[in-house]
TrEMBL record:
InterPro entries: AB_hydrolase_1, AB_hydrolase_fold, AB_hydrolase_sf, Epox_hydrolase-like. Residues 29-288 form the AB hydrolase-1 domain. This is Pimeloyl-ACP methyl ester carboxylesterase. It comes from the Bacteria. Transmembrane segments: none annotated.
Length: 316
């Protein structure tokens, strides 16, 4: 059974978190969602981990500031720097001890990289495994939206201008009546060959919970982040990088450069999949995450929970 809590950050922002799994688990998994989404993106993976029973880790899934059920963010705080600091605070409050596995989708993966950059000693001391899904360490370097370069350049200019306007639009959220009109564009931009109606509906509802300030404000930071050097310093740990070969936002080139910088990482390119892998390909993402957790348990020593996990289903 899950429990919910709110964390009040030093700057007054409030983060909403959902916790599940045994409170005494020796490993904690933190799930970080993408831009304009919320913690529900990871619902399939959270269910899989909870289903491990006595083998389950502690699971923390939270909404980033300005997203989901968390409070709005100031425009000056709509940055990856701030999200990295927020992650550090979440760990201090909700998982103050023991090894941690961090799993990040899209902006969530970039948040992990920022945490590693800004809190390197804490990262080295706490983080024992990484799952990076549909993300990038090079901003929008490789983003072409699946379009020819000249068209992609024009689209980026329009997106950047629109983001600037939205960033100044305050804490208002997209009107519910507008969301159905966005469905075809989001279906094309975010999903691959297959898109379940329920997954698209969840994505639309997540966008509808995101403030206009957050939709626009985080764009600059996301587009300019460069953290390959940070990844190269992380050392050897269980890690996996997943990407869809139809991803229009963070294409395979993004995952390839991450894997090259993080030698311990295994790369998985999923045919026909787009950007929303935790929803599109839940089994593959869950299997990769459980595989990392299994390897982390090996490192923390044997006990009944670890022994049980070793016997669990794994396909990575």
């Amino acid at each position: 059974m899950s429990e919910r809590t709110d964390i009040l950050l030093p700057d007054g922002a409030r983060l909403h978190a959902e916790l599940s799994g045994p409170a005494d688990a020796r490993v904690t998994v933190v799930l970080l969602h993408g831009w304009c989404l919320d913690r529900r993106t990871w619902r399939h993976q959270a269910q899989t981990l909870d289903g491990l029973g006595l083998r389950a880790p502690r699971v923390i899934a939270y909404d980033a500031r300005g997203h989901g059920r968390s409070s709005a963010t100031r425009r000056s705080s709509a940055t990856l720097d701030q999200l990295g600091d927020d992650l550090a605070e979440v760990l201090r409050r909700l998982a103050p001890a023991g090894p941690v596995v961090l799993a990040g989708h899209s902006m969530g993966g970039m948040t992990i990289m920022e945490y590693a950059h800004r809190h390197s000693a804490e990262f080295a001391d706490r983080v024992a495994g990484l799952l990076l899904v549909s993300t990038t360490a090079e901003g929008h370097t490789h983003t072409r939206y699946g379009l020819p370069d000249p068209v992609a350049g024009l689209m980026r200019m329009g997106e950047t201008f629109g983001a600037g306007v939205l960033a100044r639009s305050g804490v208002w959220r997209p009107h519910r009546a507008v969301l159905p009109a966005l469905a075809p564009a989001l279906r094309w931009l975010l999903f691959g060959d297959r898109c379940a109606e329920d997954d698209l509906s969840l994505t639309l509802r997540s966008v509808g919970r995101t403030s206009l300030r957050s939709i626009g404000g985080f764009r600059e930071s996301i587009g300019t982040q460069q953290r390959l050097d940070t990844l190269a310093k992380l050392g050897n740990m269980p890690a996996a990088v997943l990407v869809g070969d139809r991803d229009r936002l963070t294409p395979p080139a993004c995952a390839e450069s991450i894997t090259a910088a993080l030698p311990s990482a295994e790369l998985y390119v999923l045919a026909g999949a787009g950007h929303m892998l935790p929803l599109e390909r839940p089994e593959e993402v869950s299997d990769a995450l459980v595989s990392i957790i299994r390897r982390v348990y090996r490192g923390v020593g044997g006990n009944t929970r670890a022994a049980g996990l070793e016997r669990g289903r794994l396909a990575a």
